[in-house]
């Protein structure tokens, strides 16, 4: 009987055809379970090497093309505010910046300009397109700012306007059924025009930038810089930088928001140049066989886009070519977020 049973149930490892079926029905051995439980990280969730090499083309880079196509279809919004006294060339500068008539003149030639008694905000919206990319540009002008004998609290209408745009966006955002794309009228950048006095910043300039830098990205520029010599311009810029540092005024790009080392190095070079000494012009002139934007004077033509003549190219690169998206990100993640937190805390206290 023992020999017959041995023939029917051969020992393991004998190579019988019944062996695979018997193994498949058996549960895993206990020692193997203990070894898996003692392992620090399971094999299935172990972190992979950084920069893993692919064996073939996957198509991950096509994500950038998808984002570009979607942006070109939907377009994007950019809202800029210009603040300064009358006659500093705010409208001309905006027209030069975007190379189009996006900002109206305050008065017609030959007509006497009537200075408003209070600060009146005027917004003009245009859709401009370049190489298939559409941008909805809103320019907000502030005629009447700093033109009165008593300029006390002349920044209040500007602060009110900026907060109203935050409030409008917040109301759309907290709706139960909100729009897929909320219209963005928030001010992404405020260009403040400093008169080319060659001395120090006025109390009006300091107070305005101190208050506005807390709720919006402020970019100071020296208007009509061609009225200063190169030596006067360099000395005036140094005095303005000292004033901003003494009064703890943080203009854009803010040093506190630099996270990437490369961004910090780039922004440090920009901060050394701020405020930009700019010259605006909306007329073309012939220079060495080329048509250039510039202002014609008795001693020659001041080329707006020539870095040796003025720092307008630096301002254009900052606002459009290199930091436009960063202006929008800081507006949304810092300034608007601060307003949103404050408003929701007020609502909770009232509730």
Automatic annotation (TrEMBL):
GO molecular function, one term: GTP binding
Record localization: Cytoplasm, Cytoskeleton
PROSITE patterns reported for this sequence: G_SEPTIN
GO cellular component labels: cytoskeleton
Transmembrane segments: none
Residue ranges occupied by any Septin-type G domain in the UniProt entry: 74-346
The entry's keywords: Cell cycle, Cell division, Cytoplasm, Cytoskeleton, GTP-binding, Nucleotide-binding
Coiled-coil residue spans: none
InterPro entries: G_SEPTIN_dom, P-loop_NTPase, Septin, Septin3
Chain residue ranges for the region called Disordered: 1-41
Single GO biological process annotation from the record: cell division
Family, similarity comment: Belongs to the TRAFAC class TrmE-Era-EngA-EngB-Septin-like GTPase superfamily. Septin GTPase family.
Record's protein name: SEP12 protein
